[in-house]
Amino acid sequence: MESEIQLTPSGRLKHFLSVSGLSRALLTEILDTAESFIEVGERNIRKVPLLRGKTVVNLFFEPSTRTRSTFELAAKRLSADVLNLDISTSATSKGESLSDMLENLEAMASDMFVVRHSQSGAAHFIAESVTPNVAIVNAGDGWHAHPTQAMLDMLTIRQHKGSFEGLKVAIVGDILHSRVARSQIRALNTLGVAEVRVIAPNTLLPNDVECLGVKRFTQMEDGLKDLDVIIMLRLQKERMQGGLLPSEQEYYRLYGLNQQKLAMAKPDAIVMHPGPINRGVEISSDVADGPQSVILNQVTNGIAIRMAVMSMAMSGQTETNTSRKEALE
Ligand code: CP
């Protein structure tokens, strides 16, 4: 169970692989901790010493702009030493296995690996393989999970709406291939929103999507009614087999968020998107840049959430290692 591997015996975070199985109290603690770090980003000297002397290694096997940069900034604001491994020029391109690469990084006394990988379960595999001294944070694995993205989205929703109680939230677009949607759905339900909806053509919805705790809609006109929060998703063409959509133009006509469709939600609804956005495919420029858009707030909140998760996981690792040492004495 993911929840078991990522928690210490006393229920604190020691890896962050998924929001699945984490309690409302723990998710709220992540949000509250992140809230306390927002002020650090507003100081002249944007640093606190929580991870001083620790080494964080960013292992990104897939492209990333927002996640990789905000993890690096977060680690630096916590005063950690940061190593950004360029996988395309690392020895894995000479045939070295992932396990051998990790062992070498562990031999350099690394304290944390931040991992993005195209394979679902990669971060979990690494958490099971590495020595207990290294904390693993999942920065997105295949179709499975993107837990820090979900938590920065939850922070953004809480900032704009005050609480989760009574909220109706819809995730619109390519749910089928989206690790972001899977993590958001779990986080929203754990935090107690009133309703989570998914809106997409049937070809972009998992068959059993209702089992995740959502209401399924295939028409924007029905799904957008009475919404407080609209989360738009990119078409993840790199994970599509092809033939799922007639054309991007047709997709935009039916599912793209423009001013006319936005007017179907509540007047104070916020518009979110994890990025990268494709203007004119899933969202119009005037909505993406408009007064209801909080897309750039999400990016800023990414730093505070990643500071929270890294500091909490490092503290959980310290607790685990201290009790392991005491047990051996
Ligand atoms: N939202 C997100 O994961 O963006 P990047 O791929 O740029 O990291």
Explain this structure.
The chain has 329 residues and is α/β, with parallel strands linked by helices. The protein folds into two domains: 2-145 and 301-316, Aspartate/ornithine carbamoyltransferase (Rossmann fold), CATH 3.40.50.1370; 147-299, Rossmann fold (3-Layer(aba) Sandwich), CATH 3.40.50. The chain contains twelve helices and nine strands. It has helices at 2-5, 24-38, 66-77, 98-107, 122-129, 147-161, 179-191, 220-223, 248-255, 259-262, 285-288, 295-328; strands at residues 55-60, 81-85, 112-117, 135-141, 168-172, 195-199, 215-217, 229-232, 270-272. Strands 7-6-5-8-9 form a five-stranded parallel beta sheet. Helix 2 packs across helix 6, helix 2 (24-38) crosses helix 12 and helix 6 crosses helix 12 (295-328). The longest helix has 34 residues, at 295-328. The protein is globular, with a radius of gyration of 20 Å. It starts with a helix and ends with a helix. The model has no long low-confidence stretch (mean pLDDT 94). Phosphoric acid mono(formamide)ester is lined by residues 64-68, 140, 149, 274-276.
